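Title: Prediction job returns without error message
Component: structure pipeline
Severity: low
Priority: P3
Assignee: unassigned

Description:
Job completed but the reporter wants confirmation the result is attached to the right record. Sequence as submitted:
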Amino acid sequence: MKTCALVGAADFNAQHFQQLDAEGVFDFVIAVDGGFAHLEAIGRKPSMALGDFDSLGYVPTGMRISKFPVNKSKSDMELALERALNLHYERVFVYGALSGRLDHTLGALELFAAFSERGLLVNGITDTQAVTFVTGPDIFEMPAIESGTISVFSMSDNARGVFERGLKWELDDVVLTNRTTWGLSNEFQGEPVMIGVEEGTIAVFFPLD
């Protein structure tokens, strides 16, 4: 699966990024504005840098650059996700987008859901958690994990045909809405996990470890 990493300006899980990078997971790396500084700090030159560069404070040189005006109708992260999609990447790992300002975090989650609905497999990474987005009809699977919590939320008005298998509390063909906490804090119990949705988009939050 062709995979792109996007690195934004918020908190950066450098250890996780470097682990996947060393394993050859990333075919392409986009520094999103201030995310360039995160990559520079670990000595990783991105495939390209993109944004208006207002948070970075300067435009990088000596590499592929895609510069946009500060006054625009799309965020730098949205432009980066569009670029990944237009370059025909199937999966993205997004770093530096889910911490700091709450409005930026909410905006990022909404973007991730929107691009999932456009066929992109989106994974958001924080210091301790990951979130992946599933648009129906589709299934998300995980190997057996002994303990910890996992949460599933609807990113659509209605997510229909949602099921959860292998967790402490199982769901079977239910409707989740984006106005409920029904899917909050289910528990692993040492069994393989399967989560599916028939119609709509769900966000699945789980621990990185």
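Comment from assignee: result matches the submitted record. The chain is about 20% helix and 35% strand.
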